[in-house]
Each structure stands twice: as C-alpha cells, then as structure tokens.
Amino acid sequence: MKLLILGATGPTGRQLVRQSLEAGHAVAALVRDRAKVSEAIEVIQGDATDSGVVAASVRGCDAVLSALGTSKSLKGGIMTRAVVVLLPAMEQAGVKRLLLVSAFGVGESFNDASAIQKFFFRTVLRSIYGDKATADAMIEASPLQWTIVRPVALANTRRTGNYRVGEHLKLSGFPRVSRADVADFMIRELNEQRWVRKTVVIA
To answer: CA–CA separation, 180 vs 177, rounded Å?
Structure first.
C-alpha cells in the first residue's frame, strides 16, 4: 500500500514511518520541516491544515495514518483544523481508509477513566481533549472506513507486541503503552481490518 502519514516527525509518527517501511509499504509524509525526516521516503513539505496541500498529498494513496498532535503545547485546535480539510480531501481522492491517533479519555472513553484521570482531563488537558473530541466526532460522522485509536499514556519504550485493544478496557492505576506498540497495532489493522468504523482503546 501507499500510505500518507501525518505527524510523521513526532515520536509516534516516527514509529509509524519506520514500521510502515518494515512492513513493505510505500510511505509519503506531509511535514512542515523536511529536514526532520531521515528516512528514504516521499516528503511533502507543507501544513496539514492547508486544504490545497492536503488534497494534493492524499492523491494516489491507499490509506492515511495520522499521529498529529500538539507537541508540548496544552492548547487545542490543530486536530479540528486538520480534520476539516482532510475528510473532504480523502473523499474527493477516493481514499477511504483512515487510522488516527486520539487519546484515552476523549469521548466515551472518558467514562472508563479513574477519578484522578477525569480531573486531569477536565483541567490541564481540557483544551486539547475538547479539540480531539470535536475531530473524532467529525470522523465518526464521515463515510470513510476509519479507525480511531485512543491510547492510554504514551511511553517512549520498545515495541513489545504485548498490548490490549478494545472499545472498552478494564484499566487500573496509571496504565501506559509504548508508542511503538501503538504503531504496531495501526500497521496490523491496515491488513486485518478488525476495527473498521470503530473507536478503540489501546493499553
């Protein structure tokens, strides 16, 4: 498959690029700074919220994988702005498959969080989570073959292949999952298609 990866220079995005190549996929990355990409892939320089750039980027692709995020900022907005232009671009280009990294605690998964987590989501992460919730709802209302992935706290540890995935998971304490395992699941899901038009938690 030819994959377009958004957020390819972030810590999760880099795992997606690496593992996509290992799986034999052709990879294109839409990035703001091409100097941050070291892999031998197609690099498109531009902004993921620019409708013209996104429309050109998705043409000829079989699927889009998004690991877009806010980096160290606690201000939301990027996800909604990106999804607003991504969805029509994919529909017009006939690209149906979308896998997107959201976060545990967004949408219905908020109900499965602990009291401490809920407090954190409602305060410190309020802007980011509100943005992600709006973007997720837009994707869920689209005709695309989407999978929204909501990982628990992300860790920069090695790929283990030892993780749980489900629409609702029984969690305790402060669970973590490696970014490498999130990428592993997303690459596997491209072929397995077990969670099409589903929102899943990974831990």
So the answer is: 8
